[in-house]
Amino acid sequence: MVEYTLIRSKRRTLVIQVQPDQTVVVRAPLRLAKGQIERFLQQKEGWILLQQQRMEQRQHQKESFSLSQGKFPLFGALFPLCFVQGGKPYEKDGVFYLPQGDEPSLRAAAQLLYRDIARRELQRRVAFYAQRMGVQPTGLRINGARGRWGSCSGKNSLNFSWRLMLAPEHCVDYVVVHELCHILHHDHSAQFWREVERFFPDWRECRRTLAQVAENGAFWLDEG
């Protein structure tokens, strides 16, 4: 039997969650019999083991990748990375430069550079697609969101995570169009997806690729 932590609450469904540290949390209704919970766990044991393996692989990738190796991930590729004495991080002629320091310092500097790149790239891409689609967002902000690549507020202001810069460019453009389509349809209705499909008939493949990017290390810069 898989070891787990049981949390009961006023809920109707039974849910299994595998945490980043590979521990298992089961959320169950207040009165659900423990025998039913454990039978459910036995049925899902294969899925749990698979998720734990993925968490272990993700942690290994995070621990094994180091900016000090001299590579800068961007748009699904690795670019040359050099180190300089002090100053701000920057890019020139396809080479990226960070102030010298230990790994945490390098990661903090890289985040600043990713934010600058994201602001520049996303402003350009949003302007291009907004004109083609005949829509006008009210603003654009860059954040560090982990759970979503982008969002569109009820007032048509767009938000994007700088982590999107780790995805292939085609997928970056898909996310831009996805959020711009929310200006026309503030939902995920059939009409919304038809609008997305006008520009990205391969949107399903884009979503699969983005899920792989997230699973394979989109958050490798985080500490802890």
Radius of gyration: 21 Å
Distance between the first and last residues' Cα: 29 Å
As laid out across the biggest beta sheet, the strand order is: 4-5-7-6
> What's the overall geometry?
flat
The helix-strand sequence is EEEHHEEEEHEEEHHH
Task: Summarize model confidence as the mean pLDDT.
Answer: 90
Spans of at least 5 consecutive residues with low confidence: none
Helical stretch tally:
6
Main β sheet profile? 4 strands, mixed
What percentage of amino acids are in beta strands?
15-25%
Percent range for helical residues? 40-55%
- Return the structural class: alpha/beta
In short:
This protein is α/β, with parallel strands linked by helices.
Looking at this protein, list some descriptive labels:
single chain, 224 residues, alpha/beta, four-stranded mixed β-sheet, 6 helices
Can you describe what's shown?
By secondary structure, the protein is of the alpha/beta class. It is 45% helix and 21% strand. The protein has six helices and ten strands. It has a four-stranded mixed sheet, with helices on one face. Strands 1-3-2 form a three-stranded mixed sheet. The longest helix is centred in the middle third of the chain and has 31 residues. It starts with a strand and ends in a 9-residue tail after the last helix.
